[in-house]
Specification:
Number of strands: 5
Number of helices: 14
Distance between the termini: 87 Å
Structural class: mainly alpha
Helix content: 40-55%
Oligomer: single chain
Largest sheet: 3 strands, antiparallel
CATH architecture of the largest domain: Orthogonal Bundle
Strand content: 5-15%
Number of domains: 2
Shape: globular
CATH topology of the largest domain: hpI Integrase, Chain A
Mean pLDDT: 86
Strand order of the largest sheet: 3-4-5
Length: 339
């Protein structure tokens, strides 16, 4: 369908779900169809889903034709999201989807889409102008981790080996929630307790490992709960109740389960905290940074910096530990009063 058939019409994006899993994204814009198809082919399926979701939110709120989106439209969207209580992180992520869309549109038709409303380009159209993007400034974030007593309280309310195994994989093996629900039988190598992750963030594959407790929990789940049920389902983790019974467990279903158990034990937490806690523990145990990055799927050398800066209390403890072996009074010719 040529673009001129939908010119001057507000963009409409529809997302169809089946058993809490996205199965189809449709729009009334061939250009957005092209963009989402490009993302789906070049990046991970999770990035495609996130872009589709964020673009749907943007165009539902702004309700303008694609060619009418400008800087003021994006600012109005930011104001709406701020009033609705969304964090800078969420607003920036949604702006990034808009920015990526208009970068692609500019490549397709620079005359119709000469500028990116989120991140203006220089005259040579090769570099962003510093300080002129709409992204909100964010303070450096120190990843949260779950206290040991809270982990114990949370595990005490988990009723099944399935749910215990899922949490252990996100915690001890540092998996993302989208990665853990996608594990299939063929991905498991029992001889070395490893799992092949096929579609991690950015579409990268990697190998992760299970400790012996997680591996034992997985076997308990398979022997006592999954047994021979649903042999046609390749995914290991399935729903046992409700309309989704017999279908692979979805990210949405697992998130709801975690929220439910968190309320039961009175511990405010969310799925990604388990991964943060696992990475933090590996850092504290001084596992080598390259090995941690390979395990958790981080590509950049500085990706662990937030985990290395674990707050003032940790820095103080490490400083005192390091200085305990060095005494200025032994090395320098002076003494403190009373020594």
């Amino acid at each position: 369908m040529p673009f001129d058939l939908v010119a001057n019409q507000p963009v409409i994006i529809a997302i169809r779900y089946e058993h809490s899993i996205t199965i189809e994204v449709t729009t009334n814009s061939p250009l957005i169809d092209h963009f989402l198809q490009k993302v789906k082919l070049s990046q991970s399926v999770h990035t495609w889903l996130n872009y589709a979701h964020d673009l749907k939110i943007f165009f539902t709120i702004v309700a303008l034709p694609l060619e009418h989106i400008d800087r003021q439209s994006c600012v109005r969207f930011m104001e709406h999201q701020t009033r609705a209580g969304f964090s800078s992180l969420t607003i920036n992520r949604r702006l990034a989807a808009i920015s990526s869309l208009f970068t692609e549109l500019h490549l397709l038709d620079p005359d119709a889409f000469p500028r990116n409303p989120v991140t203006p380009l220089r005259r040579d159209r090769q570099q962003h102008r510093p300080g002129q993007s709409l992204y909100r400034r964010q303070p450096d974030r120190i990843p949260d981790s779950i206290a040991e007593k809270d982990l114990q309280a949370f595990f005490e309310v988990l009723p099944t080996w399935r749910d215990r195994t899922l949490i252990l994989l996100m915690w001890m093996s540092c998996l993302r929630i989208s990665e853990v629900v996608a594990i299939r039988f063929e991905d498991i190598e029992c001889s070395n307790r490893s799992i092949q992750i096929h579609h991690g963030k950015g579409g990268h594959s990697r190998i992760v490992f299970m400790d012996r407790y997680t591996f034992a929990s997985l076997n308990k789940y398979l022997d006592d709960e999954r047994r021979t049920l649903f042999p046609e389902v390749d995914e290991i983790f399935v729903a046992f109740k409700g309309p989704a019974r017999g279908h692979p467990l979805s990210v949405n279903a697992l998130q709801h389960a975690i929220n439910y158990y968190a309320k039961q034990c009175g511990v405010p937490l969310h799925a990604h905290l388990f991964r943060h806690t696992g990475i933090t523990q590996l850092v504290l145990q001084k596992m080598s940074e390259p090995a941690i990055r390979k395990l958790v799927g981080h590509k950049h050398a500085n990706s662990l910096i937030p985990y290395l800066h674990l707050g003032d209390a940790f820095v103080e403890t490490e400083f005192n530990k390091a200085q305990a072996v060095f005494s200025p009074t032994n090395s320098l010719n002076f003494s403190l009063g009373g020594e």
